[in-house]
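Aim 2, interim progress: modelling of the WQD-bound target.
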Amino acid sequence: MRIFVTGGAGYIGSHTLVQLLGAGHDLCVLDNFSNSSLEALRRVRQLTNRDFALVEADIRDTATLTEAMSGFAPDAVVHFAGLKAVGESGEKPLLYYDNNVTGSANLLAAMDTAGCRRIVFSSSATVYGEAQYLPFDEDHPIAPTNPYGRTKAMVEEMIRDWTAATDGASAALLRYFNPVGAHESGRIGEDPRDIPNNLMPFIAQVAVGRRAKLSVFGDDYETRDGTGERDYIHVVDLAAAHSAALEYCARTEGCEAINVGTGRGITVMEMVAAYEEACGHAIAAEIAPRRPGDVASSYAATAKAARLLNWHAERGVDAMCESSWRWQSTNSEGYGEKA
Ligand code: NAD
Ligand code: WQD
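Predicted structure of the complex, ligand included:
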């Protein structure tokens, strides 16, 4: 397949490129490098021994996007490009609506011009908001609690409407739970630009000595040990889910939202213990107040992914921590330190 990948230089994008190139697909990557580096793409080429087209551009630049897409003539689009920091989305909502929503509208219009009718979209479990029940299945009410989550919910609706209006169109809205870990080589991984917002990169930076200690946000939740419980999904399993979703879109028409998770919750303290095992030393952690907006537990119902995509997660928490540590310990400054 010829696949046009927006945001392919990012954390999840770079791992998915390795998967798709390994499966023999031909790719064109479009990224504005607002939250990623060229070095990640250099390493993807090195790991796979394959090349791909690259366009440095913004999805909001309609002319460049349309020209790049029409020139490449893809069979399908995988749409990762987006801003993803929940806190920042509260401070700069218009930036998030412009980048994520307007950008996605431009993308669908460019697909119309190029005659491309298949899309796999990076949505998020954050669209569910507060759990009315667990596990979250795809029919759970949609009620995001922050602007970032609302951009994802809006783009889902936009893609659903576009699919209904476009003959032969097919879309998979993948609702990722909590992606973590790295490629087993340790050559590519997650490289946050600022202080990490998310648990796993924060633990990794404490483990490697970049930060003094982890703050555990709350130990009085209704969970096994009182700390927050999440469905962490290995980024390599997540990458494989994109291959499965592309195959699904090639054989179906319509639009489906599909959870991508393991179905199992892991608490903050369980993750710390697993990381200590992986890195071989203690991780300094102290209990801090709850983080506003956090929920006690979140985990996925996985039956729909199994049924439609014939996909399930294969890697457990040990593989998540081991691969994260391999990446972090050999690239302590992320891609900033060229290896
Ligand atoms: P990332 O920031 O590492 O990757 C996003 C990529 O998109 C970056 O390379 C960035 O430079 C690019 N980009 C952003 N805006 C762009 C624009 N306007 N034009 C062109 N390129 C642009 O993030 P990630 O973790 O790899 O996430 C990928 C997608 O998955 C995002 O849409 C994110 O919202 C979604 N998602 C991520 C998570 C998570 O926890 N990482 C969870 C659920 C959903
Ligand atoms: C996990 C657990 C924290 C940091 C976020 C976004 C969501 C999605 C994935 C994109 C919670 C605790 C964290 C720390 C801690 N992204 N924690 N100390 O909040 O489930 O989801 O990322 O779509 O939209 O909201 O992930 O990794 O931030 O937190 O104790 O320094 O770790 O309280 O229980 P979250 P997270």
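The chain has eleven helices and 13 strands. Residues 84, 86, 124, 126, 178, 197-199, 202, 214-217, 228, 230, 268, 291, 294 surround WQD (ligand 2) (CB under 6 Å).
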